[in-house]
Amino acid sequence: MRIDGWTLLLQAINFLVLAWLLRHFLYRPVLAVIAERQATTERARVEADAARADAGRLRQGLEGERAGLSEERDRLLADARRQADAERAALLDRARAEAARLLAEAAATLDDERRQAVSGQREAAAELALAVAARLLGAADSAASLTQRFLIEACQSVAGLAEADRRALVEDGASPPDPLPLRLLSAAPLGEGALTDARTRLETALGRPVALDAGADPDLIAGVELHFPHSVLRHSWKQALAEAMEELTRDDRTQNDAHKQNDAGKTAAA
Amino acid sequence: MIESPLSAPIVFALGPVTITLPVLTTWGLMAVLTLGSALATRRLRVVEPGRVQTALELVVQTLNRQIGETMQADPAPFLPLLGTLFLYLATANLTGLVPGLKSPTAFLETAGALALVVLLATQALGVRARGLWGYLKGFAQPTPLLLPLNILAELTRAFSLSVRLFGNVMSGEFVIGIVLSLAGLFVPVPLMALELLLGLVQAYIFTILAAVFIGGAVGSIERG
């Protein structure tokens, strides 16, 4: 066995050449593409990390905004609730005031109507009472005697007047005619004696002669009316019942007027 | 006189230079490896690599990782030398399984040449990494008395490297040849399968030992 020096040398050279060739055609390009892929992967990883960090920051920001929105929503809800409560309270107050006003108006209306009804009933009752009294008194047989007595009382009333009042009955700045004309209306026709007695009494009371003009007026029921030149002296049941009627209805009218004035004042205030 | 089967047969001669069979086979392997690499790396893609590219990347990355783990250093400067050593040895050892071809590593010249390259590369890289004086001082460690023994060990390591490779590949081919001549056509198939495994194991052993020697020389690992 022998060692071939040329083969040894050539094989060593061959190996070195092969190493150079593979370095150029195999290792370098393959390592380059591996490095490039690793760089790409690293870039992608870095970008993914950056994207994840951005997403984290974005998420934190959104969570902050969401918390802010929640607080804002709570605040707005609280404000809205407060406003709603205030408006509801105002509405309730207005409704209560309106209800109170309506109740007051209704009560006033009812009171007014009740008063009007009572007044009307009272007037009707008074008229009925007067009609009953007039019929009863008119139908009485004593109307003539009552009339005569009323005549005497009328003459006594004239006599009982003060001097100035008596003068005012017959004078009006000028001197009255002589004899003094007097119109005497009676509920029932008077007899001559009653008329003479009446003339005498009146001349005595007035201090001058009197010319009586007698007449009858059944509406007087009972009693007389003395018509002086400038005034009338009424002394009859008709007058008495009229005064009674006036007296009965005076209170109702007064109260109605007062209530109307109060209602007008309340309406003006509202 | 009968030619020794261990001698490299001369194919032709260029003047005084004799071109033997292992040299010719090595040229063929070089052409195959280089052209194959050039074609395979012609269209490399970063995204969605093809099967060939994936296989190439797997081989290169595996070599890179093995060298790095063995030398405990950046494998990039040593990949062309050690990676080519493994690829050449693997292909050369398996060439013997192809009918009509003979493995170049079955000749002592090829194994010796590779061992010589490793020896010289070890010295060159050691000097470059540690400086001439620093590298030479390493032979006198731990005591100058061991200087002759360390130098002898450096030479014998390379010698054993070449003889191990040559002996294993040559013996495997011899056994297959003898069994084939004695038994018949298909009997040596299990032995060929074994030779396949043996060839890869020898390539791996040779490359790893070279990495250990170089790593010891450059100081990245404890000197063996």
From TrEMBL, chain A:
<keyword id="KW-1133">Transmembrane helix</keyword>
<dbReference type="GO" id="GO:0045259">
    <property type="term" value="C:proton-transporting ATP synthase complex"/>
</dbReference>
<dbReference type="Pfam" id="PF00430">
    <property type="entry name" value="ATP-synt_B"/>
</dbReference>
<keyword id="KW-1003">Cell membrane</keyword>
<dbReference type="InterPro" id="IPR050059">
    <property type="entry name" value="ATP_synthase_B_chain"/>
</dbReference>
<keyword id="KW-0066">ATP synthesis</keyword>
<feature type="region of interest" description="Disordered">
    <location>
        <begin position="247"/>
        <end position="270"/>
    </location>
</feature>
<feature type="transmembrane region" description="Helical">
    <location>
        <begin position="6"/>
        <end position="22"/>
    </location>
</feature>
<feature type="compositionally biased region" description="Basic and acidic residues">
    <location>
        <begin position="247"/>
        <end position="263"/>
    </location>
</feature>
<comment type="subunit">
    <text>F-type ATPases have 2 components, F(1) - the catalytic core - and F(0) - the membrane proton channel. F(1) has five subunits: alpha(3), beta(3), gamma(1), delta(1), epsilon(1). F(0) has three main subunits: a(1), b(2) and c(10-14). The alpha and beta chains form an alternating ring which encloses part of the gamma chain. F(1) is attached to F(0) by a central stalk formed by the gamma and epsilon chains, while a peripheral stalk is formed by the delta and b chains.</text>
</comment>
<keyword id="KW-0406">Ion transport</keyword>
<keyword id="KW-0472">Membrane</keyword>
<comment type="similarity">
    <text>Belongs to the ATPase B chain family.</text>
</comment>
<dbReference type="InterPro" id="IPR002146">
    <property type="entry name" value="ATP_synth_b/b'su_bac/chlpt"/>
</dbReference>
<feature type="coiled-coil region">
    <location>
        <begin position="59"/>
        <end position="116"/>
    </location>
</feature>
<dbReference type="GO" id="GO:0012505">
    <property type="term" value="C:endomembrane system"/>
</dbReference>
<comment type="function">
    <text>F(1)F(0) ATP synthase produces ATP from ADP in the presence of a proton or sodium gradient. F-type ATPases consist of two structural domains, F(1) containing the extramembraneous catalytic core and F(0) containing the membrane proton channel, linked together by a central stalk and a peripheral stalk. During catalysis, ATP synthesis in the catalytic domain of F(1) is coupled via a rotary mechanism of the central stalk subunits to proton translocation.</text>
</comment>
<dbReference type="GO" id="GO:0046933">
    <property type="term" value="F:proton-transporting ATP synthase activity, rotational mechanism"/>
</dbReference>
<comment type="function">
    <text>Component of the F(0) channel, it forms part of the peripheral stalk, linking F(1) to F(0). The b'-subunit is a diverged and duplicated form of b found in plants and photosynthetic bacteria.</text>
</comment>
<dbReference type="GO" id="GO:0046961">
    <property type="term" value="F:proton-transporting ATPase activity, rotational mechanism"/>
</dbReference>
<keyword id="KW-0375">Hydrogen ion transport</keyword>
<dbReference type="GO" id="GO:0005886">
    <property type="term" value="C:plasma membrane"/>
</dbReference>
Automatic annotation (TrEMBL), chain B:
<keyword id="KW-1133">Transmembrane helix</keyword>
<feature type="transmembrane region" description="Helical">
    <location>
        <begin position="78"/>
        <end position="100"/>
    </location>
</feature>
<keyword id="KW-0472">Membrane</keyword>
<protein>
    <recommendedName>
        <fullName>ATP synthase subunit a</fullName>
    </recommendedName>
</protein>
<keyword id="KW-0813">Transport</keyword>
<keyword id="KW-0138">CF(0)</keyword>
<keyword id="KW-0066">ATP synthesis</keyword>
<keyword id="KW-0812">Transmembrane</keyword>
<dbReference type="Pfam" id="PF00119">
    <property type="entry name" value="ATP-synt_A"/>
</dbReference>
<dbReference type="GO" id="GO:0005886">
    <property type="term" value="C:plasma membrane"/>
</dbReference>
<dbReference type="InterPro" id="IPR023011">
    <property type="entry name" value="ATP_synth_F0_asu_AS"/>
</dbReference>
<keyword id="KW-0406">Ion transport</keyword>
<feature type="transmembrane region" description="Helical">
    <location>
        <begin position="200"/>
        <end position="221"/>
    </location>
</feature>
<dbReference type="InterPro" id="IPR045082">
    <property type="entry name" value="ATP_syn_F0_a_bact/chloroplast"/>
</dbReference>
<dbReference type="GO" id="GO:0042777">
    <property type="term" value="P:proton motive force-driven plasma membrane ATP synthesis"/>
</dbReference>
<comment type="similarity">
    <text>Belongs to the ATPase A chain family.</text>
</comment>
<dbReference type="GO" id="GO:0046933">
    <property type="term" value="F:proton-transporting ATP synthase activity, rotational mechanism"/>
</dbReference>
<feature type="transmembrane region" description="Helical">
    <location>
        <begin position="6"/>
        <end position="35"/>
    </location>
</feature>
<keyword id="KW-0375">Hydrogen ion transport</keyword>
<dbReference type="GO" id="GO:0045259">
    <property type="term" value="C:proton-transporting ATP synthase complex"/>
</dbReference>
<dbReference type="InterPro" id="IPR000568">
    <property type="entry name" value="ATP_synth_F0_asu"/>
</dbReference>
<keyword id="KW-1003">Cell membrane</keyword>
